[in-house]
Amino acid sequence: MTTPTSKRPNYGAPLLILPSGRAGETALKLTGMLAIILPLSLLAILIGTTFIQGAERLSADFLTDLPSRRASAAGIGPALAGTGMLMVLTAAIALPLGIGAALWLEEYARPSRFTGFVELIISTLAGVPSIVYALLALEVFVRTLGMGRSILAGAATLALLVLPMIIMASREALRTVPHGLREASYGLGGDRWITLRTIVLPLALPGILTGVILALARAIGETAPLITIGALTYVAFVPDSLSSAFTALPIQIFNWVSRPSADFHVTAAAAIVVLLTVMLVMNGLAIWLRSRLQTRIEG
Amino acid sequence: MSAITPDTLSADTGPGGGSPLHAPVDLKTPRSLKERLIERLFGAFAMVSILTAAGIVIVLFGESVAFFQQVSFGQFFGDTQWTPLFSEPHFGIWPLITGTLLTTLIAISVALPLGLFAAIYLSEFASPRVRKVAKPSLELLAGIPTVVYGYFALSFVTPAIQSFIPGVSGANALAAGLVMGLMITPIIASLSEDAIYAVPRSLREGASALGGTKVRTIFRVVLPAAASGITASVILGLSRAIGETMIVAIAAGMEPNLTLDPREPVQTMTAFIVQVSLGDTPAGSLGFQTIFAVGLMLFLTTLVFNVISFRLRARLNRGGHA
After folding, report:
1. Cα distance from A90 to chain B (closest Cα, Å)?
2. Are residues B149 and B65 part of one domain?
3. CATH number at residue B246
4. A15 touches B: beta carbon within 8 Å
5. Which of A35, A206, B9, B110 is the most exposed place for a label (fewest CB within 10 A)?
6. Interface mutation vs chain A, best among B31, B47, B122, B155, most A CBs within 10 Å
7. Within-domain flag for B149
8. B43 and B146 share a domain?
9. Are residues B53 and B99 in the same domain?
10. Any B CB within 8 A of A96 CB
11. Are B45 and A18 a contacting pair at CB < 8 A?
């Protein structure tokens, strides 16, 4: 028979099998620890094995050589250069757009229904799968704007992809600047732009840069959008202009991984080592910047 | 005069408050041309996001309309074969849906227990020092490029599975799903932990006062109170798994396969888009339009999941469960 109180869902069911005394507590604690240690050790093992596998290919030549039909002679020269150029271009596009948008939302616009709408759109965009951005870029950048399968089209795609992250990180950083400093600047006769340029932005900069670097570190690992806009998977030259065809590290890795030959998987492992190292350096840089930010606010 | 805000207050401190060089400024409506131009410029930058969102919707719907003028909904949702690039094409989306569903379900069945127990440990047991190290460490899992995860799945996980389970093909849904689970574990752990952490202390104390042990309190009081936040984390994890591309493109095979057998190769919606992009399907052709129709399905699915997750979390932030 159902009584009104039976509407309460029976959340207690798992307890039938769980001892609930001291032993149960220890079991739950150990399970929780295991749930953290297990995935991390798996990741460590996978990365470790990749390092060991790729070690034999790693050399200074590997970083500069062109890709080749022979796995042992293949290098990541054009891919590494492509990734570097992509990063610079992506930052050049996304940085002003992202910081500008953040400044507008935080410092200029009055909170209104419209700014609420803009915020909603930005957080929605942050959750759109990267391959969907690629379809937009394919239609707009590659075809309509006639950029073709160029490094500029690739950078523009990645810039759109990281823009929500950069805007959110920049707004966060702008909010940490105490309001009193702005007031002091206005009190001394500074107008809005002078206040932003000389007081607010310098103080928020480490926080903004931390966010930008983390976003770019994410961007250099992005593979699917670049493949979808048609980045070539075999490029034997370093891009020399904005309209040049290009390849990038993750695309090169994908190309080698999708070959049946185990030899090329070793080459892929070596390229993965390089990619992870670049990402590690960028993340380290972000952490260092963040710690600098903390000392500044305390001091 | 506009509404008094902290900004306007400082600028309107009476006559003589402003310097001779800069007139007292009503800071919400800049007067000088330079100020107005700068505001316009930044406003335009903010509009890029709106344009991006509008562009995504227009492009996906536009190409999909062209697609569905040639392929009926009946063919799209009624057929069970997906061979859009063959000379006798079939456009039944179901193999891609089951492929996506299969890898996503495998991923979530890995990530949910790991993420949830990690969250319970972090919020109920871990010392602040352990939390400070463990949380960012878990985030590492989400930071590894997906092409690298794809390599792990293909080169290490698949051979490992093959030595346990016979009859697993070289590309299979299981390895891709398992590795994807590793990738979304931090999302579930982090959002669930927020939800569990937000459960008011008084509820825990009340349960203890009634004689509940710690385990009983967690399972009967804390987790039910955090249920909507935990659900939000799972839904966001599902959305990420559905949109994930490279792991499945590398390790799950590229064969549209109407199956729920994890040992077999499958193709997901995302992997299909990659497959077409790798070939040279001419722009404007039906095969080319297909990726936009699939992209639209993908976009709408993840959008719905993200919105549900967002709503659940917003309820949590308002203290809906306090």
Report:
1. 15
2. no
3. 1.10.3720.10
4. yes
5. B9
6. B155
7. yes
8. no
9. no
10. yes
11. no
Which chain A residues are closer than 8 Å to B225 by Cβ? none
Query: For the segment A225-281, what is each residue's pLDDT rounded down to a tens digit?
Result: 999 887 766 677 777 888 888 889 999 999 889 888 888 889 999 999 999 999 999
Q: For chain B, what is the domain count?
A: 2
What is the residue type of B261? D
Query: Chain B contact for A298, CB < 8 A?
Result: no
CA terminus-to-terminus distance, chain B:
41
Q: How far is A8 from chain B (nearest CA, A)?
A: 11
Higher pLDDT, B4 or B302: B302
Each domain of chain A, given as residue ranges in start order, spans 73-298
Interface contact A18, partner B, CB < 8 A: yes
Superfamily of domain A73-298: MetI-like (1.10.3720.10)
Report yes or no: B161 and B174 within 8 Å, Cβ to Cβ.
yes
- Residues B273, B156, single domain; the answer is yes
Q: Give me the interface pTM, i.e. the ipTM.
A: 0.87
Residue B116 lies in a domain: yes
The answer to whether residues B209 and B168 belong to one domain is yes
Answer with the residue of higher pLDDT: A220 or B211: A220
- Chain B residues with CB under 8 Å of A103 CB are 42
Separation in Å, CA of B276 to nearest CA in chain A: 8
Dig out the tokens for B46 from the structure. 């903010």
Q: Which of chain B's residues have a Cβ under 8 Å away from the Cβ of A124?
A: 53, 303, 306-307
Q: pTM value?
A: 0.86
pLDDT in tens, B142-192: 889 999 999 999 999 999 999 988 888 888 999 999 999 999 999 999 999
Contact across the interface for A104 and B55, Cβ inside 8 Å? no
Contacts of A191 in chain B (CB under 8 A): 22, 25, 30, 32, 35
The residue length of chain B stands at 322
Q: Check whether residue B246 and residue B313 sit in a common domain.
A: yes
Give the number of C-alpha atoms closer than 13 A to the C-alpha of residue B313, restricted to the C-beta side.
17
pLDDT at B22 over 80: no
Q: Yes or no: say if B220 and B207 are a contact pair by the CB < 8 Å rule.
A: yes
Range of the domain at B51: 31-70
Chain-chain contact of A39 with B35 (C-beta, under 8 angstroms): no
Residues B99 and B215 reside in one and the same domain = yes
Q: A19 in helix, strand or coil? A: coil
Q: Dump pLDDT digits (tens) for A117-140.
A: 999 999 999 999 999 999 999 999
Q: Is residue B195 part of a domain?
A: yes
Closest-CA residue to A278 (of A213, A208, A227): A213
| B162 inside domain | yes
The string of DSSP codes covering A33-76 is HHHHHHHHHHHHHHHHHHHHHHHTT-SHHHHHSPP-SSGGG---
